[in-house]
């Protein structure tokens, strides 16, 4: 008897994309293991729920805002031994699920990361996201400290997720980093990277949305520093190093823009430098906005843990 896999998808106002996500999941290759799809709506104000009801899936609702709360609701309801995650703005390839869960046949593997690729970029924000490696899953799995699996393309045993306390509902971003840390610490397991478990996701298309994303990611990183000072101490030396890096990134765009006009640098390089500056400024502003407030480290995990 094959293992049942529960695919949990949190969604908020995903009417423009959730239909494509579900179509791609139902187009999995015939040898894919048995699976159920659990969509957790997080308070959508558009036609998300109406679209989801057209498919043979379980639709749940979660009033507590945030992807962690939605994933906890799905985790609580899931019947599968394995829980796989993708986002509501992704399209998975036909062998995605089979490739994603295969490494869990090894009991030493606690988490699996698939490969996440962006759609063909059309705007400057999308080109930056594609070139910067924000979604480089292989790099994330080997990061030191806090190696992690991004939640948009993840597999984990349901029992391990529950035993670790589920997802931390107080985090709006970096919740996958924190979740990975607790699962790995409890299981003493490893992360496997599954490069053939490929999905495509939609990057932020506008400059404002990209800056907002960077700001929120910076805030999530600050939460990790606040919660784990023994592992991630913030020191004056780090402040000095950061100031130096930011100064270089702020200075680079005008220099490269001039170089592009003089045909000494490519327009692509100049554009990347501008977005890299904007991303870093927004990211670190978000970091210090959160770090200075010293937000509570109260945990609110899965109610079924």
Explain what this protein looks like in three dimensions.
With 305 residues, the chain is an alpha/beta fold. It is 45% helix and 17% strand. α1 (18-26) links the parallel β1 (5-11) and β2 (35-41). α5 packs across α11. The relative contact order is 0.14.
Question: Would you kindly provide a brief summary of this structure?
Answer:
The protein is α/β, with parallel strands linked by helices and 305 residues long. It is built from eleven helices and eight strands. The chain has two domains: 197 residues, Spore Coat Polysaccharide Biosynthesis Protein SpsA, Chain A (Alpha-Beta Complex); 87 residues.
Termini separation (Å)?
27 Å
Which geometry do the CA atoms define? Answer: globular
Global Rg: 20 Å
Q: In the CATH hierarchy, what is the class of the largest domain? A: Alpha Beta
Structure summary, number of beta strands: 8
**CATH superfamily placement of the largest domain:** Spore Coat Polysaccharide Biosynthesis Protein SpsA, Chain A
Major beta-sheet overview: 8 strands, mixed
Strand order of the largest sheet: 3-2-1-4-7-6-8-5
Mean pLDDT: 93
Structural class: alpha/beta
Count of the separate structural domains:
2
């Amino acid at each position: 008897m094959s293992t049942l896999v529960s695919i949990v998808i949190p969604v908020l106002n995903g009417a423009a994309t959730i239909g494509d996500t579900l179509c791609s999941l139902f187009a999995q290759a015939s040898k894919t293991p048995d699976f159920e799809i659990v969509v957790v709506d997080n308070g959508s104000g558009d036609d998300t729920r109406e679209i989801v009801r057209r498919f043979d899936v379980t639709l749940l609702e979660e009033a507590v805002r945030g992807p962690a709360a939605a994933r906890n609701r799905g985790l609580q309801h899931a019947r599968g031994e394995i829980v796989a995650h993708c986002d509501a703005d992704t399209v998975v390839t036909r062998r995605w699920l089979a490739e994603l869960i295969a490494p869990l046949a090894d009991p030493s593997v606690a988490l699996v990361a698939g490969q996440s690729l962006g759609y063909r970029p059309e705007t400057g924000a999308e080109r930056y996201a594609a070139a910067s490696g924000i979604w480089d899953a292989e790099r994330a799995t080997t990061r030191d400290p806090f190696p992690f699996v991004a939640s948009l393309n993840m597999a984990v045993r349901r029992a391990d997720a529950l035993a670790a306390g589920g997802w931390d509902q107080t985090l709006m971003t970096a919740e996958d980093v924190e979740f990975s840390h607790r699962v790995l610490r409890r299981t003493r397991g490893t992360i496997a990277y599954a490069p053939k478990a490929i999905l495509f996701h939609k990057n932020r298309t506008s400059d404002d949305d990209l800056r907002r994303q960077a700001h929120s990611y910076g805030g999530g990183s600050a939460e990790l520093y606040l919660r784990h000072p023994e592992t991630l101490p913030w020191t004056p030396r780090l402040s000095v190093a950061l100031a130096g890096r930011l100064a270089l990134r702020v200075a680079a765009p005008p220099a490269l823009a001039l170089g592009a006009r003089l045909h000494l640098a490519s327009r692509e390089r100049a554009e990347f430098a501008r977005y890299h500056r904007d991303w870093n400024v927004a990211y670190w502003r978000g970091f210090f906005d959160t770090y200075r407030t010293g937000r509570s480290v109260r945990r609110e995990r899965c109610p079924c843990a």
